[in-house]
Specification:
By secondary structure, this protein is of the alpha+beta class. Helices cover about 35% and strands about 20% of the residues. The protein contains two helices and three strands, in the order E-E-H-E-H. The protein has a three-stranded mixed beta sheet, with helices on one face. Strand 2, helix 1 and strand 3 form a beta-alpha-beta unit. The longest helix has 14 residues. The chain is globular, with a radius of gyration of 12 Å. The relative contact order is 0.27.
Length: about 70
């Protein structure tokens, strides 16, 4: 994925609306691999890179969480 880094932004690495993982750094590599494996089973896992937490783009976090609202338990 190619993008221009901006402090406070959240970047979608893989789209998916069954489950979502947000994180940063090396663990995202595992999350992307898991998402690709789950996709083979029909599970669409979204993966988001959150490279900075100060400032945190709370609006984006809420928007992503709300898009998953039907999957909350």
């Amino acid at each position: 994925m190619d993008y221009e880094f901006r402090i406070g932004e959240i970047y979608e690495l893989i789209d998916g609306d069954d489950i979502v993982v947000m994180g940063y750094g090396p663990p995202l590599h595992s999350a992307v691999r898991a998402a690709l494996e789950l996709r083979k089973m029909g599970i669409k896992m979204g993966v988001y890179n959150v490279p900075t937490i100060k400032p945190l783009n709370e609006d984006a976090v809420v928007r992503i969480a709300r898009s998953q609202q039907h999957n909350r338990y």
